[in-house]
């Protein structure tokens, strides 16, 4: 019922429709499904516009940046990221997709008209990012007839095979660079659990998994009561650390305990590098630890750690650890969720900014780089909040560290 509306009319029509009219049982929800389809079409058109505006901003900025002042790519990526409440690394990814989409007229039109989803568009652009603009236009022409109903996975596979026929060298180059992009990373979850992700050459990872599975199956046939997943993880832990699981972890733990916990009050503790855990688990980690060096950092109700040497120029030792733990090991730039790698003086040391917990904030490497770019400014407020100003004069304020970071405020220039 919303099919004939222009995108700008959809939202108002969907909001003002009366869905309460009794429908025959077998047709219940027809209007709502119509509304959902219309909204999805609207979202896709908006996503195409977002990509277009993003790519055009970079083109404008490149045109207007005086020769010799460097490529404004990183600044534009970070500005777009802040405008959309994301991390600068997400901004880089968005800008790469937006510029990759530009030469693909058919793909762009399909997204604008709601024929493909944004995920399908991203898959096509991502899998063809080694092509030059002319070759990308060839790919766009070759894929045009396949677009209706194309899912992201099928789009990725189809694009990959088309890229091989269009530019075999580019395909081989992509495979070579991708196989270098290896990492092991950690995501903290609820209940004192986490997920370890390893990315690497497929044949190596398959061997690791098969070896762990085989070991688990052997132990289980001998009567080991643990389930397969537990044995696999225990075995991975033992092989990677050289320690036996039952001995407890031989590592350094920072456990931040609010002082209220001493009075038996129910408050969350904080495990360095992970996030909030229950005081129960904190006590258990300390009690059952083997060769564990742990440090309990007590904070008062305002979240302040007492009695530190504040005369150092660099954030080191206990102060650095405490700021990282206070900031949940996350970057302080509004919208950024990357792991903090460095501690930054909010008021720069060269402007008399002290090396204290209130003047220190954890930032990721990219955010630390972005704030030094031309036209960027970061300033502390009276209440502990920090305001980031971008080259266009837009400002983004992060709340004081102990408050929830998700509520960054924004105002225009
Ligand atoms: Zn960051």
From TrEMBL:
Transmembrane segments: none
Start and end residues of each HNH nuclease domain: 318-369
Region (Disordered): 378-413
Domain of life: Bacteria
One Pfam family recorded for the sequence: DUF222
Biased composition regions of type Polar residues, renumbered to the chain: 387-397
Feature: compositional bias, Basic residues: 402-413
The protein's name: DUF222 domain-containing protein
Source species of the chain: Aeromicrobium alkaliterrae
């Amino acid at each position: 019922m919303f099919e004939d509306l222009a995108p700008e009319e959809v939202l108002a029509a969907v909001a003002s429709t009366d869905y309460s009219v009794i429908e025959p049982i077998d047709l219940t929800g027809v209007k709502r499904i119509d509304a959902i389809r219309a909204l999805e079409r609207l979202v896709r058109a908006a996503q195409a516009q977002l990509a277009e505006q993003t790519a055009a901003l970079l083109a404008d900025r490149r045109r207007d940046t005086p020769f010799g002042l460097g490529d404004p790519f990183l600044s534009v990526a970070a500005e777009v990221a802040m405008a959309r409440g994301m991390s600068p690394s997400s901004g880089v990814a968005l800008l790469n997709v937006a510029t990759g989409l530009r030469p693909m007229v058919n793909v762009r039109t399909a997204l604008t008209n709601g024929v493909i989803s944004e995920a399908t568009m991203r898959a096509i652009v991502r899998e063809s990012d080694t092509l030059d603009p002319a070759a990308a236009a060839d790919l766009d022409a070759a894929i045009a007839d396949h677009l209706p109903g194309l899912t992201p996975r099928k789009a990725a596979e189809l694009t990959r095979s088309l890229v091989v026929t269009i530019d075999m060298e580019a395909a081989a180059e992509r495979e070579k660079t991708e196989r270098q992009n290896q990492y092991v990373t950690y995501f903290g979850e609820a209940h004192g659990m986490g997920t370890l992700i390893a990315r690497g050459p497929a044949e190596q990872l398959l061997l690791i998994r098969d070896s762990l599975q085989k070991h688990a199956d052997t132990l289980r046939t001998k009567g080991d009561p643990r389930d397969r997943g537990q044995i696999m993880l225990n075995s991975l832990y033992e092989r990677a650390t050289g320690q036996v699981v039952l001995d407890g972890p031989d590592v350094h733990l920072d456990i931040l305990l609010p002082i209220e916990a001493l009075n038996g009050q129910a408050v969350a503790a904080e495990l360095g590098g992970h996030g909030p855990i229950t005081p129960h688990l904190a006590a258990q980690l300390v009690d059952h630890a083997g060769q564990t060096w742990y440090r309990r950092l007590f904070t008062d109700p305002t979240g302040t750690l007492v009695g530190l040497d504040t005369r150092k120029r660099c954030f080191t030792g206990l102060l650095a650890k405490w700021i990282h733990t206070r900031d949940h090991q996350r970057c302080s730039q509004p919208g950024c969720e990357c792991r903090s790698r460095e501690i930054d003086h909010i008021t720069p040391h060269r402007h008399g900014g002290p090396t204290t917990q209130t003047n220190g904030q954890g930032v990721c490497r990219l955010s630390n780089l972005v704030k030094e770019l031309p036209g960027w400014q970061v300033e502390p407020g009276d209440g502990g909040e920090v305001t980031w100003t971008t080259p266009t004069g837009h400002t983004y304020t992060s709340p004081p560290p102990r408050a929830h970071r998700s509520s960054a405020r924004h105002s225009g220039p």
